[in-house]
Amino acid sequence: MKTNCIFCILLISCACFGQIDSTTTTFRSEKPLLSKKSIIPASLMLSGILLSGSNFEKNLQRDLRNKVGNDFSYPIDNYTRFAPIAQLYIADIAGVPSKNHWFDQTKNLIISVVITQAITGAMKNSIFKLRPNEFNADAFPSGHTSHAFANASVLYEEFKESSPLLAYSGYAFATTTGTFRMLNNKHWLSDVLVGAGLGIAVTKLVYHFDYLFSWNPFKKSKDTVLTPTYNGSAVGFYFSKQF
Question: Under a CB-based contact definition with an 8 Å cutoff, are residues 85 and 109 in contact?
Fold first, then answer.
């Protein structure tokens, strides 16, 4: 199992190290082998794989449950994973400058989440790792965590230049999600680490190759306008069409 997972990580990481030239459609190297965009997610996933099933993570999980109590259950992780999405659109409504138009943000978000969840589901269905609470064998990797970090990575990519504090804040919610997956006895440390790395890696790839699916009917159409709005009491959209 570990060998197959390491192989998958190498494939994802290698994809992060290069880019496709839009004029020649050839793969070429863009940055040194261990570029900043790949080393963090690769390290998270590799660390998770190496720790999976170890006495260290078993002892850690036992100690966490002993500290919070075996009856502890606080499902905030069901909601914190969506917090970066709320931050993304609230920032758009507030007029915070972003990297992309809201339509492109949404498109990248959907693609990132769909791919992340597809990979997460495929791994769960092939690895069969028992959860700490022994409810089922869908522990590895954590779907909540991979989803949360994919959302947080989209927020980061959009606002890292204009508002670094906002950009990084999404990772605080994502980390909270992973932490409570462990505190609620739903996942081991390795499940959370691999889920986090996976969500980040997929989103990095989506933004790396986003020019391949750059279609945006709202950005290029001069006679159509659709933008998020906020009037002080309600959130909505402003739509205008010239005929």
Answer: yes
Beta bridge partners of 20: 27
Tokens of 196: 């986090």
The residues that bridge with 227 in the sheet, in sequence order, are 238
Residues counted in the chain:
243
Instruction: Tell me the pLDDT tens digit for each residue of 69-119.
Output: 989 999 999 999 999 999 999 999 999 999 999 999 999 999 999 999 999
**Residue 237 bridge partners (DSSP):** 228
Yes or no: say if 167 and 159 are a contact pair by the CB < 8 Å rule. yes
Q: Assign 184 to helix, strand or coil.
A: coil
**What string of DSSP letters covers 21-62?**
-TTT--EEE-S-SS-HHHHHHHHHHHHHHHHTT-HHHHHHHH
Give the integer Cα–Cα distance in Å for 114 and 148: 12
Torsion of CA 141, 145, 146, 149, to 10 degrees: -150
Give pairs for 111-117: CB < 8 Å, separation 24+: 111/206, 111/213, 112/150, 112/153, 112/154, 112/199, 112/202, 112/203, 112/206, 113/147, 113/150, 113/151, 115/202, 115/206, 116/146, 116/147, 116/150, 116/198, 116/199, 116/202, 116/203, 117/143, 117/146, 117/147
pLDDT tens profile 151-176: 999 999 999 999 999 999 999 999 99
Query: In angstroms, what is the C-alpha Rg of the chain?
Result: 20
Cα separation, 32 vs 118, in Å, equals 29
Q: Match 């931050």 to its residue by tokens.
A: 87
Query: Residue 57's pLDDT band (boundaries 50, 70, 90)?
Result: very high
> Whole-prediction pTM value?
0.81
